[in-house]
Hints:
The structure holds two protein chains of two kinds.
Chain A: H1 3-13, H2 21-26, H3 33-42, E1 47-50, E2 55-58, H4 60-81, H5 84-98, H6 103-112, H7 115-129, H8 133-140, H9 146-153, H10 165-180, H11 191-199, H12 202-216, H13 220-223, H14 227-237, H15 239-250, H16 257-270, H17 275-286, H18 290-297, H19 300-311
Antiparallel strand pairs in A: 1-2
Helix pairs in contact in A: 4-16, 4-19, 5-6, 5-7, 5-8, 6-14, 8-9, 9-11, 10-12, 14-15, 15-16, 15-17, 18-19
Chain B: H1 12-23, H2 30-37, H3 42-56, H4 60-67, H5 70-80, H6 83-96, H7 98-111, H8 114-128, H9 132-138, H10 142-153, H11 164-180, H12 185-194, H13 197-211, H14 215-222, H15 226-239, H16 241-253, H17 260-270, H18 275-286, H19 290-297, H20 300-309
Helix pairs in contact in B: 1-2, 1-3, 2-20, 4-5, 5-17, 5-20, 6-7, 6-8, 7-15, 9-10, 10-12, 10-15, 11-12, 11-13, 14-15, 15-16, 16-17, 16-18
Amino acid sequence: MAFNQELEAITQAFSGHGVDEKSLTTILGKWDPLERESYRKQTSNFFIEDHERQFQRWNDHCVRLLKHEFVRFKNAVVLWSMHPWERDARLAKEALKKGPSSYGVLIEIACTRSSEELLGARKAYHSLFDHSIEEDVASHIHSIDRKLLVALVSAYRYEGSKVKDDTAKSEAKTLSNAIKNDEKKPIIENDEVIRILATRSKPHLQAVYKHYKELSGKNLEEDLNDLRFKETVQCLCTPQVYFSKVLDEALRIDVDKNIKKSLTRVIVTRADIDMKEIKAEYNDLYGVSLPQKIEETAKGNYKDFLLTLIARGG
Amino acid sequence: MATLVAPSNHSPKEDADVLWKAVKGWGTDESAIIAIMGHRNAAQRQQIRQAYHDIYQEDLIKRIESELSGNFEKAMYRWILEPADRYAVLANVAIKNLNSDYHVIVEIACVLKPEELLVVRRAYHNRYKHSLEEHVAAHTSGYLRQLVVGLLSSFRYDGGEINPILAKIEADILHEAIKNKKGKLDEVIRILTTRSKTQLKATFNRYRDDYGYSLSKKLLNDASDDFLKAVHVAIRCIDDHHKYYEKVLRNVLKGVGTDEDGLTRVVVTRAEKDLKDIKELYYKRNSIHLEDAVAKEISGDYKKFLLTLLGKEH
């Protein structure tokens, strides 16, 4: 390979999700000192030229970012081997610590897991952190989201399929009225909306979703202005659409490091649950297959690991 | 300690035979039913139910329901049910009259240990095809709803760790909120519905040390609405449920008429647990034995059955 092609290969090896360990070993590993100096001089976004002292130094910020990329594979492996309960408990704790931008993860865990899986996560949380998840959520969140979030993490929904259609219809109407009255009484403070979303069974909520569409012509989450409620409805009623959207956002170039982490989280937590349906939904929504997109955007061991997880179960 | 007197060995088949003889044909031999069922623990009762079903091809409970009547039937029905199922039935009965009986739901949510409450919630799913929270939420509103649904949804950390600084902070919050009656009721709900019982007891003790009187004494005089009354019940159940049950019994047995449902509920749910401790407390407080007080107020087979559960040999 000519040096310019090798340069390009190394630039690629360091971009995207994860790093291409193989290229780094075979190419960077064999470069002599002059070639490595050439690399530093020609990679101005990683290296800063110190003209006064005649050398090129690493940009500290880039070193920190690279650390995240190298460790992406390790994090995926550790998360994958964890018991699902411990996994969800740790993800919840991390989301709480990170603050409001990560509260969507709390909603994701509370709403996409089965009743028994969520219960298991709550038990694991006791064991790991000596507190209940609801007590930490309630005492750390002081914003207006608190009521909804505490209610969602505390839910132990009926898991059977029996649904009272009349009740679903009337609750769709209740939601419709609450949305129309949003100006006077903000939805996020509406106890009836929280009651319906946090206590009803998922089959019941899907019936409510259906009746809402018949009533107003739109999907429930389209009419909800509040981000948290949108996420809640998506996770409860159309989880595969929700996950596809999270994956799409995570797979873009140059995303925020928290959003980038969603890629590992979604694939590891859904590989054994509904990855097949998510792949199908992703394809419908974005016209490209998920494995293909990951092939393009992820690198090295991390990429291989994700593709293996996604390929399980067909 | 329990008041129930049950033999360590029994033959479910022989017991089932005796019960069959007691119910077949014209009339019912109530004494025989009391003599057997009044002296069997939960595990033994389930074995008898199973043996009865295997031999006579019918459900013992349904048979008893049709043979007995009145308060005696209600008590025997609840007694034969498995504990978790029993609490589910009691909760459902209370929900039908939630305006006056919300204290029963609070009692169940606060006296039971976290794992026991979970089993009751599962039993409720099985029996009523809905979650307990969803039914309670649909029949209450405002602060009372938030409190009761929160108490039911909690899965408290069960460990012994106490944070004394937190106890002080939260004792002060409770003091402020109850003094002003309007301010910060959300915080009262947060504390009571999410903290561990050990932490709450430390908080209640801190309140007593700092303010000179106990929280429950303060609420006894100041509870002006259903919400504060429910808070009062919750605090008493969490702090010392023996004292709470003694008071319930005292109220049931004094004055004009008797609340048989309340009497049945306490005796049937506690006979195998700690009715003996409650009896001792009752005697200390009222200088009359609980059995004697009960004997004065009720009559017939209902009286015979309750006295048997209370450990009285006759």
